[in-house]
C-alpha cells in the first residue's frame, strides 16, 4: 500500500493517464459575406458554419494547486498567450474555481488555416474544464465567455452547424447535407487580422437571409479575392483544385475546400493533387465531434 501511494504522488502527470480527452474539431465557412463594420472595427458577417470530423485532441487532468499548465507548446505561441491557457484561466476566474489543470494537445489542424484550430482548442477547453471541474456553467454562458477571446469560439462551444451573423456570434442552427470535403492546405499561414484590415476587402455585400442562402446552389467568400491577391500559393492551389471541383476559401484562409458525394471521390482527387498540394479528406458534421463525444460520456 505504502509503495503504491508513493508511486501515485511521484508519478509525473502525463497525457496517457489524463482524466478527460476530448476532440477540438475544425470548421468550414461554407459561405462568408461581409455586410458591414462595427465602430470598433470588427466586421459584420453572414456565414454558414459546418464542422468537420477532423480534429485536434486535448487531454485534461485537474490539479489541486490552481495552476494551469499546458504541457505541449504550439509553435510561435507563448504559453500564456495560448488560447487554451487563456480559456482555462477565464473559466477559472469566472467560476471562482480553486482547481487548476494539466493540459496536453495533439495538434493536427493547420495554424492560420481558416479552419478555426485555435478557436476550437479554446472552446474544447471551456467545455472540457467546465465538465471536469464541475463548474456547471451553461453552454450559453461558456459561449459568452468564449466570445471575449475570439469571434469564432461561440459556434464551437455550441457545437451545432449554424448560420451566423453579427461578428459571428449570433447563431441559428441549421441542418446541412453532411458532404465529404477535400480540404487543401496551401503552404502558408494567414493572419485573420491582416485580411480584415486590407483596404480592398469587400465590406458591403447586401444582406441576405438564411432561407435564400440555403436555396442557393453557388456560394462565395468575400475574403477570397484579398487572400488570392496576397498569397500566390493560395491562388495557384485554387486554380489546380478548380480542375476537379468547385473550390472555395474557408474563413480568411489559407485552406480551400470542395464538396463530394462520397469519401472515395474526394480521396481520388486528393491523390491526384498530392504531389503539388497537401490535403485531407473529412466528412461534414452538423453536430461537432466534441458534442458527440460529450453525449457518449454522459450516456456511459
Ligand atoms: C474569419 C472567421 O474565421 C470566420 O469564421 C472569423 O470571423 C475570425 O474569427 P477569429 O479568428 O475568432 O477572430 P478574432 O480572434 O476574434 O479576431 C482576429 C482579428 O480579426 C478581425 N475580425 C475578426 C472577426 C470579425 N467578425 N471581424 C474582424 O474584423 C479583428 O481585426 C481581429 O483583430
Ligand atoms: N492553441 C492554439 N492553436 C493554434 N493557434 C493558436 C492557439 N493559441 C493561440 N493561437 C494563435 O491564434 C492564431 C490563429 O490560429 P488558428 O489556427 O485558429 O487560425 P485560423 O484557423 O485561421 O482561425 P480562424 O478561422 O478562427 O480565423 C495563430 O496564429 C496563433 O498565433
Quick description:
With 300 residues, the protein is of the alpha+beta class. Helix content is 34%, strand content 25%. The chain has a single domain (13-300), classed as Ribosomal Protein S5, domain 2 (2-Layer Sandwich).
Task: Specify the structural class.
Answer: alpha+beta
Helix content: 25-40%
The major sheet is characterized as: 10 strands, mixed
| Strand portion | 25-35%
Number of helical segments with 4 or more residues: 11
Indicate the CATH topology. Ribosomal Protein S5, domain 2
Secondary structure layout plus pairing:
Blueprint: H1 2-10, E1 20-37, E2 43-63, E3 68-70, H2 83-95, E4 100-106, H3 117-132, H4 139-147, H5 153-158, E5 162-165, E6 170-173, E7 180-184, H6 192-196, H7 210-215, H8 224-230, H9 232-241, E8 248-249, E9 256-260, H10 263-273, E10 279-285, H11 289-299
The structure holds 4-diphosphocytidyl-2-C-methyl-D-erythritol (CDM) and adenosine-5'-triphosphate (ATP).
Function: Catalyzes the phosphorylation of the position 2 hydroxy group of 4-diphosphocytidyl-2C-methyl-D-erythritol.
Enzyme class: transferase
Region (Disordered): 1-20
